[in-house]
């Protein structure tokens, strides 16, 4: 199993939301839009911003709608 590279500084609710939806890698997160992620219970603007920064560091970004 591939180890998760999702930043742990998102907060527990956001991390649980991503894990529960099956997002374990930033490459998976890059396949969806911010709007879709915001629909997850526990995901907020601060977590989205931290994910955006982590994606940028890997040369990735959120999907466009």
3D architecture notes:
- By secondary structure, this protein is mostly helical.
- The chain has one domain.
- The protein is about 50% helix and about 0% strand.
- It is built from four helices and no strands.
- The chain is globular, with a radius of gyration of 10 Å.
- It starts with 11 loop residues before the first helix and ends in an 8-residue tail after the last helix.
- The relative contact order is 0.23.
- The model has no long low-confidence stretch (mean pLDDT about 95).
Structural shape: globular
What oligomerization state is this entry in? single chain
Q: Into which percent range does the helicity of residues fall?
A: 40-55%
Average pLDDT across residues?
93
The proportion of residues in beta strands is: under 5%
- Extended strand count: 0
Order of helices and strands: HHHH
Low-confidence runs of at least 5 consecutive residues: none
- Please give the largest β-sheet: none
The CA-CA distance between the termini, in Å, is 30 Å
Q: Please, how many domains?
A: 1
Using the CA coordinates, give the radius of gyration. 10 Å
Put simply, the count of helices is 4
Structural class: mainly alpha
Q: How would you summarize this macromolecular structure in one to three sentences?
A:
By secondary structure, the chain is mainly alpha-helical. The protein has helices at residues 12-20, 26-29, 34-38, 45-57.
């Amino acid at each position: 199993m591939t180890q998760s590279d999702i930043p742990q500084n998102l907060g527990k609710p956001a991390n649980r939301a991503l894990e529960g939806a099956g997002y374990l890698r930033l490459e998976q997160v890059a396949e969806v839009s911010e709007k879709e992620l915001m629909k997850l219970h526990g995901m907020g603007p601060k977590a989205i911003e931290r994910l955006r920064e982590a994606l940028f560091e890997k040369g990735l970004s959120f999907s466009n709608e």
